[in-house]
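Thread title: Can someone regenerate the structure for this chain?

I was given the following input by a collaborator and told the matching structure tokens would be attached. They weren't. Posting the sequence so someone can regenerate them.
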Amino acid sequence: MGHALPFFLLTLSLSLSPFARAQEDPVVAQVGPEHITKSQFELRFGLFAKSALRQLGLPDSEETRALLAQYRAPYLEALAEERALLLLARRQGFWPLPDSVEAQVAELVKAFPEEEALRKALEGAGVPDLATYRTLLAEAMALEALEAHYRMELKVSPAALKALWLLSPEYRHPALYCARHILVPTLEAAKEVLARLAKGEAFAQVAKEVSQDPGSKEAGGDLGCEPEGTYIPAFEKALLALKPGEVSPPLGTEFGFHVILLERLVPPGRYPLEEVAEELAQGVKDKAWERLVKFLIRPYPITLFPERL
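Best answer:
Regenerated them for you:
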């Protein structure tokens, strides 16, 4: 006799298997005709967690992951909205062609001549295998194409930009001190800098030659235009004591010896519209896109089950 299960046991096994699978991988969100399971959520939340911890400069551990637990429910909502956008992207023809996806997959594979190295790289990024990467890539390409299409339609008039600029307090500034400095290791070196400046050498040129501040050396010691409270107290005290065009005597700090030039003082006011227009327009478009998303996904009702996470 073979080892086949008795008919009633086979029937029972088949009838219970969907329930068992549902118990193991419950649905955590229903999006139109599709659903998101807990395992699908965990994959995406894992990618989010790795990225967030990397940006925060924290190690990826159980303890640090626990810090992100409060974001699980909000992330589920965002993931469900993304799934709705994917449904829309497929319906409207924004899904990438298989060849374009495979071309990018091939680029990745080519970067890792050894299969084991590729596997470890994917694993380190939180992606279990190449098939999952391919799926995530296709989805990302579809969302990018969809968003690019609709963002092209979002326009901000010059009049609206100017009104927002005038009404937005974040584009106002206090007095700004536009300065340069030269950092050298000794008092003697600082005195040599002052002697060169007294002979008429340009401050920026001397800074490029001798300054040991890597952040400003190549820019001729340029520190930009910053408000009071930007620098360490000793440096700021010396800077605020200067008049536009004046150079400070040598100033010693824990970094070395500074020679400071106050180039000009910008009175309190607004940052010029032309300097902030792009940032301002981008902010307006971002908010408009968020509202548009809510409208676009209305045909795909979303039901969330955060208690199953």
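DSSP finds twelve helices and nine strands in the chain.
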